[in-house]
Amino acid sequence: MSRPAPLVRDLAGNLAFRLAVVERVVAHLPDDAGAALIAARSRQCAREMLATFDRPDPDTMLELQKAVMTVVEEEMR
Predict the structure, then answer these.
(1) What is the pTM of this model?
(2) What is the pLDDT of residues 6-59, one digit of tens each?
(3) 24: which residues sit within 8 A by CB, 6+ positions away?
(4) Count of CA atoms in the C-beta half-sphere (13 A) of 14
(5) Which residues contact 65 (CB under 8 A, 6 or more apart)?
(6) Contact (Cβ atoms closer than 8 angstroms) between residue 23 and residue 48
(7) 63 with 7: CB under 8 angstroms?
(8) What is the pLDDT of residue 1?
(9) Other Cβ atoms within 10 Å of 44 Cβ, number
């Protein structure tokens, strides 16, 4: 298994980031949410967060999506 990118690791370990993801994604998912809904909500959350960046690049978007998914997966366990 590969190690997560530094941005993914730093964000997933940040309490404020985790709380923001839980508030935006996890708290609004139904108990029977499927993988597709979870992924869609996670991508939407990442896009909303990225909108606050001045000049985001595609790599940042990808890493932000991975960080959001990491938190969502951990919180849904």
Answers:
(1) 0.79
(2) 888 888 899 999 999 999 998 888 889 998 999 999 999 988 888 888 777 888
(3) 45, 48
(4) 13
(5) 42, 43, 46
(6) no
(7) yes
(8) 53
(9) 13
